[in-house]
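Chain X:
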Amino acid sequence: MRRILIDNARRKRALRHGGNQQRLDIDEIEIAALEKEDELLAINEALEKFAVVDKQKAELVKLRYFVGLTIDESAEILGISAPTAKRGWTYSRAWLFRQIQNTTNASRSA
């Protein structure tokens, strides 16, 4: 599911598909769809870096964020306890938030 979402976001950003144009959802006219795609790509990039640091916690994030599983369901799939998964989820969110903030700040400075 993650790959499908990422590939779709990349495809929509491609110039030949109007990547420079701001996309709008007719039903939610005040919300720009392009922002969601940028956010999704930033999360994916940070998640790839995080997988190098801690593969199990990165898998936990994929299960929670992209698949939509609960802590208990994710813990069962990963073969870890629910409290361990909860600690891992807390750590992962903080790590990814910090990484995305650093990337966003660096791109604004450039």
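Chain Y:
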Amino acid sequence: MRSPTDGKLLRIFIGEADKLNGKPLYEEIVLLARRNSMAGATVIKGSMGFGCKSRMHTSKLLELSTDLPVIIEIVDSEEKINDFLPSLDGMVKEGLVTVEKANVIMYRAEKK
């Protein structure tokens, strides 16, 4: 992805305990994004949240949860995000997927 440019931010909201082929779903999504040469992906683990079933997930000691919220963020061009979305349809059985406009200001790695 070249920079600066208009891009898209893909956010995938799932649970930490969600699996695909016996592996954490968030790992499978990030690995697929890498195989698809996406610009990058980040997994963010939440400490509290709820979804469409209104079941509370929290990391409080007295209510220890093994299914904390997880957000995967991927920023890339609109074309690459749109091409990636059909893959998610077969992977995400329960969760939320959003896409929004992203104004990419900088995308670079240090030259060695």
